[in-house]
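Final report, closing paragraph on structural work. Over the funding period we assembled a curated collection of sequence-structure pairs, and we close with a single example.
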Amino acid sequence: MTSAIQHLLKPHDRDLGGFSVRRLLPSLPKQAVGPFIFFDHMGPAVFGPGEGIDVRPHPHIGLATVTYLYEGAMMHRDSLGSLQRIEPGDVNWMTAGYGVVHSERTPDELRATGHAMHGIQTWFALPQAEEDCEPGFWHYPAADLPLVEAPGMVLRVIIGNAFGKTSPVRTYGSTLYVAGEVADCVSFEIPAEHAERALYIASGSVEIDGRPLAAHQMAILTPGSTPTLKATEDTRLLLFGGAPLDGRRHIWWNFVSSSQEKIEAAKQRWREDRFPAVPGETERIPLPER
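Its predicted structure, as stored:
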């Protein structure tokens, strides 16, 4: 019998000044799952009074950033003039297109009192026809995202369609992105409606057709399979994927493109400070040496 798990990925852990970040994508066996080309699990972390996150202004091209929080809050600013606080369960979607700059910082009142921080950030590689589109930013409150509820289980459809529900979040083509809270011993079948799928365990543990999957592991699911997932303790999970990318992408720093020449041009634009500025910001992250 063919296994429902095609690849099993473990994170590359990084410590950013006491703030743990686990990166799962891109990986050696799989650059992307559907359009998702970057997957970071941030935290959980506890910041004391006066502490917080300060991601200074930096540029993007050829992708959309998707931020989803479990705990804490972030203040998003970008070169379009957007100023948006994101809370747990909300979605911030920023399309970079031909070029956008943004920052992410801890809100002032949380920095003053101390707070917990925990969330997921992904990059969505734009289709080749949309890589040079106009940048844009959209915010979706948690109340607008559809829920799939059953005893001991709540699944929030963040992007795309799943389990008979469709998210209002803008996307390009077939997309799957679901955040789940599943109680111990609860099980459900993962449908095969999307060409590429991955399952990430943010906390807790599960079995996939009886095979154990621990916290911070990512399972790339076999196309066409309909495995049964069973939680073996209270679990937070992410199910994501969609249609395969229309060709391989080049990735360098914060740039994603089907064209290496466009990445080189973006590097030169940032080096020469020719990207638009973020209102209210005076800092910027310099271009890396390599």
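The chain has a mean pLDDT of 96. DSSP finds two helices and 25 strands in the chain. We thank the funder for supporting this effort.
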